[in-house]
Design brief:
The chain is mostly helical. It has a single domain, classed as Orthogonal Bundle (Peroxidase, domain 1). Helices cover 56% and strands 0% of the residues. It has 10 helices and no strands. Helix 1 packs parallel to helix 4 and helix 4 packs antiparallel against helix 8.
């Protein structure tokens, strides 16, 4: 089931982008709604819930979102933040498969780390995040990192669909979350300085 989240998230992103004619109302709602339960997030509920299976939607009496809802919503919100102001050029692409053009989020952050002027500042933000066990804290930290990446990277194409899958596992057991943090660390620290000078170059897909 987790692998389905890549496909679902990618499908939603493509629907929001609409081949260069993005749904500005939904994207604005996403940027201004930090969680799926925020009032402004209601604008994205129709497309989000239409793409998730019934078993992936909340069945709790108190309305607590499922791990799938949180993961997909968070990933498409990061996409909305990253896409803003770039209607003519898609900023999302897959980092896996033969036609891969994208890069993982932490691979893209690793490319920034390859810049001597940015390395210390990047490490000061990324390392504490990798040590964070609270999901809400991780999402908050990622929000800041996506904003930094948008301002600094020349818009590398980022695989937000794979990020949704990672965020799903992050909400699982302690062991699962630990493996995701390790994967992110591998993607971030393995980028070589020489590679980092090439915008949008892919790192290994884990």
């Amino acid at each position: 089931m987790p692998n389905e989240l890549k496909t679902i998230t990618g499908r939603i992103i493509q629907a929001l982008y609409r081949e260069g004619h993005p749904d500005k109302a939904i994207l604005a709602g996403l940027r201004n709604a930090p969680t799926i339960t925020s009032q402004r997030a209601q604008v994205v509920w129709p497309i989000l819930m239409a793409n998730l299976d019934e078993r992936q939607l909340s069945q709790n009496e108190d309305g607590t979102p499922t791990a799938e809802e949180v993961a997909v919503y968070t990933a498409i919100r990061f996409y909305a933040i990253y896409q803003q102001g770039n209607n003519d050029s898609p900023v999302y692409a897959s980092s896996w498969g033969q036609a891969a053009e994208g890069i993982t989020l932490f691979g893209a952050l690793g490319n920034l780390r390859g810049n001597d002027d940015l390395r210390i500042a990047m490490d000061r933000r990324v390392q504490p995040l990798l040590a964070t066990t609270n999901v809400a804290g991780v999402i908050n930290g990622l929000t800041h990192l996506v904003s930094i990446l948008k301002a600094s990277s020349g818009l590398q194409k980022v695989d937000f669909a794979s990020l949704a899958q990672d965020l799903y596992w992050l909400q699982g057991s302690y062991e699962q979350a630990g493996r995701i943090r390790l994967r992110w660390g591998q993607q971030y620290f393995s980028v070589k300085q020489a590679d980092a000078q090439t915008k949008g170059e892919k790192t290994n897909d884990y």
